[in-house]
Amino acid sequence: MVCWLYQESDDVEVFLAAAGQRGLIRVISTRRMRDEFTLSGHGGAVNEVRGHPTDNNLLLSASKDNSLRLWNLQTKRCIIVLGGLEGHRDEVLSCDFDLNASFVMSCRMDHSVKLWSLETEEAKSAILLSYTYPAKSEKPFPVLHIHFPVFSTRTIHRNYVDCVRWFGNLDLPKSC
Length: 176
Hints:
By secondary structure, the protein is mainly beta.
């Protein structure tokens, strides 16, 4: 899976986030033609990576380890893990942000579609903290774990859902 990203500074820098079977996400500079850094934390293959629609430093990943992770590319930290108690119980195949990045939609092998909120005070605070947390702190970054989606359904599809996308305010899951 790949995702194009860009960073605006004095000039625009274009990056490619590439992930796959090993559970690693490599961020590659297209200008320098080299790996800039690698994000690790998933316990299984990464099935999809998606860039944040309003903050070019944030990346979302969906994995075979039953979770989604939100990463800060500037600080190279995992900020939020979406999954757990009421999360996915099988590999997450696809994910997407809505246009305002208020919600994340995800789908998995068991026919389910889940909607996660990034509008909670805890989520907003974790994202802000990821930019200011000291790089050389003795304590690890306090990753936020969100165990409960705001909506979940398994009644729409009869087969596994392999892709989800937002189209304006509409969520469009696709099943085989």
